[in-house]
Design goal:
By secondary structure, the protein is an alpha+beta fold. It has 2 domains: about 70 residues, Glutaredoxin, CATH 3.40.30.10; about 110 residues, Up-down Bundle (Glutathione S-transferase Yfyf (Class Pi), Chain A, domain 2), CATH 1.20.1050. It is about 50% helix and about 10% strand. It contains 9 helices and 4 strands; from the N terminus they run E-H-E-H-E-E-H-H-H-H-H-H-H. A 4-stranded mixed sheet has the order 2-1-3-4, covered by helices on one side. It is globular, with a radius of gyration of 17 Å. The mean pLDDT is about 95. It binds glutathione. The site of glutathione has 10 residues, from loops. Glutathione binds next to loops.
């Protein structure tokens, strides 16, 4: 069965697009445009009118992290979705942590920098987000001390989910100098062919 992934590449749909390349499963990319998201057809797929969304046969799912955890659990091999409950819990931990502790700060800066007219920019909100970011990146840096990936020596869905969020640190030119483990880990993850293929780059 070919899964359908809804949403433009330049959106959080990049996350499931990365994982389907990583898993090597057949998929259909329904790119959509942002203006299509509130139409009746798409609202049947995701009543929130947001992307990404997934259809796997009759089964429909929204929320980028949930989609990736589902696909990893269904198709992951060789520890990509770890087998022990404890390691799976760590996968959930890093995925939820990325969404709650990192994403909004990166997004605040990203939107202001690239998607906001100069007269609408909010330097105070950006400064606050920039001030908040070192705290989670210090935590991530510590967790990666002496290991290449979040759970050890193997790239797992935890790395993919968190790196897909942290990838926004690149366009905003976040300074990883104080967090070398985190910076090297992000480069390692984003150098993967699956990430590049999802973006249509080499
Ligand atoms: N927490 C959701 C966020 C989904 C979301 O906000 N997606 C944006 C695109 S990246 C969207 O669809 N925006 C359209 C809108 O809010 O109307 C997820 O991770 O899937």
């Amino acid at each position: 069965m070919t899964v359908k992934i809804y949403g433009p590449t330049a959106s959080r749909a990049a996350r499931p697009l990365w994982i389907v390349h990583e898993l090597g499963i057949p998929f259909e990319h329904v790119a959509l445009e942002m203006k299509d998201l509130k139409g009746a057809d798409f609202l049947k797929i995701n009543p929130n009118g947001k992307v990404p969304a997934l259809a796997d046969g009759d089964f429909k799912l929204f929320e980028s992290m949930a989609i990736n955890l589902y696909l990893a659990a269904k198709h992951g091999k060789d520890g990509f979705m770890p087998s022990s409950l404890e390691d799976q819990a760590l996968v959930w931990q890093w995925s939820f942590w990325g969404m709650t502790e990192v994403e909004r700060h990166l997004l605040t800066v990203l939107i202001d920098m690239f998607m906001t007219a100069p007269d609408k920019r909010k330097p105070e909100a950006v400064a606050e987000a920039q001030k908040a970011l070192p705290k989670p990146f210090a935590v991530l840096n510590g967790a990666l001390q002496g290991r290449d990936y979040l759970l050890g020596s193997t790239f797992t869905v935890a790395d993919l989910n968190l790196a897909s969020i942290c990838s926004w640190a690149k366009p905003i030119k976040f300074d990883f100098a104080p967090f070398p483990n985190a910076g090297a880990w992000l480069d390692r993850c984003l150098a993967r062919p699956g990430y590049k293929a999802a973006r249509g780059t080499k």
